[in-house]
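Model it.
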Amino acid sequence: MEKILKSPLIVHYELTDNCNHDCTHCYNSFDHTVPLVPYTTMKAIVEEVIQNEVFHAVVTGGEPFKDRMGLQYVLEEFTKNNMRLSLNTNLAMVNEDDIQMVRDNNVKSILTSVISYSPEVHDEVTGVPGSLKRTLKNMGIFASLNYGITANMVVNKNRVNDVYKTGKLAIENGARGFCATRMAPLDEKDIPLMLSGEDTELMLEQLLLIEEDFGVQIGSLNPLPRCFSDNPRYHRFQKGSCSGGRVNATIGQDGDLRACPHQAESYGNIVEEGMSSVWQKTPVLAEERVPTECGDCKEVKGCAGGCGETSRVVSGINSMDPLGRGVEHVQEIDQSLPEVNPNQRFSFREDIIYRDEKSGGVFYRKPSEHIVLPNKGVQVVKDLSQITFNINEVVEVLGEGIVPLVKLLYKKNLLKKHMED
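Modeled.
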């Protein structure tokens, strides 16, 4: 069946598999000492991404600064084409010229890795003495330039007690956000280091304390299944869903396209076959991997039983995430639309970008703030984007049926409020 979207909205582009670190938990299991990619390959990948109107590129690796010339080319080309850019880097090898390169382009956010508050533990995991010190130094430089730095800690059993101290250190060195993410196993040897349900609750409690003490944004990058816990304190971490193959894709250094960064399986090469062709045969992971235990669950479309790659390693591709507890513990996600004062005036945010689809179009601000609409809805939104309006005015022209759309646009943060009449 043909996909709704002609191409992904967001790509993780692994510029190079080469890396200055050799982290034992790294989900990118490829050889980190490989040669850099030829310019012709990189150019072909970049052209495919641009021609297919991808909105947002997360430029990652390996370590993207291992190929400085390639990174500069990629950032400049994507910036010229008004793409949103994020950068995933360990920051340990960044120099003054690199910082200026980032500032000259459309990079809005940086995700870095702080593995532990302890230099000994961090450096042991990376295999590079002094790596924590260098990462923290460069975090501080970017923070002083007003970049939104988020630090992520990959958490396994050996480090689960260190989350609060690690977050505190990251924040004190300039991080505006902190994520603690359970380790995803690469193979069976990693299973003993995976977090149990009790470990995961300990991780989340420390995250919540970081939020309380420092007022920063917190999160976890590997979504938990909707049936992880009955405790309302953790429900915010159970709302995530797998977007692999639906709106996201990962492009390897040679152009191989995968649905998820954690996957080894490729569905084709965009240099050889074209992105559109490969995208159409890339499965939506949340639909392909429906565990048998989840068949009657109302949340299965969004949750898909948790992380499918973790399930694959532990017990098979169509099994439930090891942290899942079953349908009787499922926390249903509130899908209700917000209440809106019918006299409240709105206008569309200025930074929304748009692309046509076969039977409609997409309006996009960021990964969590976009909407896919059929042709009729697209025209309505385009008309409204030229004016300020309130619900009463819109209903007079288009009828009551327009109200849910306006509320949904507001919920998606595509509208901003003006002073009430």
